[in-house]
Specification:
- The chain has about 210 residues and is of the alpha/beta class.
- It has one domain.
- About 15% of the residues lie in helices and about 30% in strands.
- The strands form 3 sheets. The protein has a 6-stranded mixed sheet. It has a 4-stranded mixed sheet with strand order 3-2-1-12, covered by helices on one side.
- Strand 8, helix 3 and strand 9 form a beta-alpha-beta unit.
- The N terminus and C terminus are likely disordered.
């Protein structure tokens, strides 16, 4: 059987449902007539994608890269060009000085057009998680500065995409996208640093259409 899930929506069952057999998710792309099918590895019933190491196992391996690309394209639809390919980067970012604390991301990758993506799964509520996500994005941007000798080359976009298993924002939508905007006009000053939060408790399970 094939589970058909529109790429423009996310289903909380992706983070709660387990299966003893390998299934296939069929992602329906809105701008093409063709469907993209990506095998979903099976998980033992006691495991959940809301656990960070399970999340990293599912989406942070080279052999599961097509699954991560499908997930990211669903989230970034309308914000960035469709991701064709990406490269996994070292998730541990070394501090600039000996007394600096190292930063370890869940998943850190770069797309073929040099967009930097940091993907985090946060299961336990933290009162200052937004500060942490902001620091992660700044860390990635700072690494870009270290590779450039001057300011003649622009910075590449950075997205910190956080799946959080708690309610953070007082609104109905489960997805929030923040970047540097003018407070008076609301227009974007820079789109280089982006924070995206997906509040999993707000995602309602939807009926899944099955086909033989």
């Amino acid at each position: 059987m094939t589970d058909k899930i529109p790429s423009s929506s996310l289903d909380n069952s992706l983070f709660t449902t387990t299966s003893k057999t390998t299934s296939t998710t069929q992602i329906i792309t809105p701008n093409t007539s063709e469907n993209i099918t990506t095998p979903i590895p099976s998980l033992p019933p006691i495991l959940s994608l809301k656990t960070d190491w399970v999340f990293k196992w599912m989406f942070g391996q080279e052999k599961h890269k097509p699954l991560l690309i499908d997930l990211l394209n669903a989230i970034l639809q309308g914000k960035e060009p469709p991701i064709i390919d990406l490269t996994f980067n070292n998730t541990e970012q070394i501090g600039e000085q000996l007394d600096n604390r190292n930063v370890i991301f869940d998943i850190y990758c770069t797309t073929s057009d040099n967009t930097h993506l940091i993907i985090e799964m946060q299961n336990i509520k933290q009162p200052h998680y937004i500060d942490r996500a902001l620091a992660y994005g700044i860390t990635s941007m700072n690494k870009q500065l270290n590779t450039q000798s001057n300011w003649h080359k622009p910075l590449e976009p950075v997205y910190v995409i956080s799946f959080v298993n708690f309610i953070y924002f007082e609104k109905d939508s489960f997805i929030s996208h923040a970047r540097l905007n003018d407070l008076d006009t609301g227009t974007a000053i820079s789109s280089k640093l982006n924070l995206i939060f997906l509040e999993l408790p707000k995602i309602k399970k939807k009926s899944v259409r099955l086909s033989a």
